[in-house]
Design goal:
Elements (H helix, E strand, L loop, with lengths): L4 E3 L11 E6 L7 E4 L4 E4 L6 E3 L9 E3 L8 E9 L2 E9 L6 E6 L4 E9 L4 E5 L5 E7 L5 E8 L7 E8 L2 E8 L1
Antiparallel strand pairs: 1-6, 2-3, 2-7, 3-4, 5-6, 7-8, 9-10, 10-13, 11-14, 12-13, 14-15
C-alpha cells in the first residue's frame, strides 16, 4: 500500500497491436482501453491513480500509484491483433506495514502492538516467556491488529525486547524495566 504497482502485459505476438484493454474483477467492464487505429485511449470505472506505465502502443503495462487496499484483485489484459485475441491474467495482493508500539502499564506488563497490518504481524519476546499472551483484532478493511502482553512482575531482567516480523518490515523495540 502507498507504493507503485506495475502489471505487465507482454506482447505475445510480433504482429502489431490493434487493441489493448485492462479489466479488473469482471468480464464485461473495463478500466483502460487503447485503440491503435484511432490512437484513442479511454477510461471507464477506473481511478485516476490507474494509468498506463508507458505508451500503450509500445508497452501496455498498467501502473497503479499509490496503491490502496481496494486495488487488490484480479486484472486481465486483453490484446487483439490480426492473429487473434490474447488474455493475460495478473493478481494483485496489497500488503500493508503495521504501526508498531511498545509500552507498559502500571501492573508491570509490557504491551507490544502491531496495528493495522496486512497480513497480521508476528510478535515474539526476548527473553522468551510463558507469561505472555496475545490478542488479534480483524478490521473491516482487511487489516489486522495483533497485541502481545509480557508480564515481568516476577522478573529480574533489566529490559525486554519485542520482535515484530512482517513481510514489509522486521522491527525490534526495547523497553527498560
Amino acid at each position: 500500500a502507498g507504493h507503485e504497482a506495475v502489471l505487465s502485459c507482454p506482447n505475445v505476438s510480433k504482429v502489431s497491436l490493434l487493441l489493448v484493454t485492462w479489466k479488473r474483477n469482471c468480464r464485461s467492464c473495463y478500466c483502460l482501453s487503447y485503440r491503435r487505429d484511432q490512437n484513442e485511449t479511454s477510461r471507464m470505472n477506473c481511478s485516476e491513480r490507474i494509468t498506463w506505465k508507458y505508451s500503450p502502443d509500445s508497452d501496455p503495462a498498467l501502473r497503479i500509484y499509490p496503491v490502496h487496499l481496494g486495488d487488490e484483485g484480479n486484472y486481465t489484459c486483453e490484446m487483439a491483433n490480426s492473429e487473434g485475441n490474447f488474455h493475460l491474467f495478473s493478481s494483485l495482493t496489497v500488503i500493508v506495514p503495521p504501526m508498531v508500539t511498545l509500552t507498559h502499564d502500571k501492573s508491570r506488563v509490557a504491551v507490544c502492538q502491531a496495528s493495522a497490518g496486512k497480513p497480521a504481524a508476528d510478535i515474539s519476546w526476548i527473553p522468551a516467556s510463558n507469561h505472555s499472551s496475545e490478542e488479534e483484532f480483524h478490521h473491516t478493511n482487511g487489516t489486522v491488529t495483533r497485541v502481545s502482553y509480557f508480564g515481568w512482575a516476577n522478573s529480574s531482567f533489566p529490559s525486554v525486547t519485542c520482535l515484530v516480523t512482517h513481510p514489509t518490515t522486521n522491527q525490534t523495540l526495547v523497553l527498560d524495566l
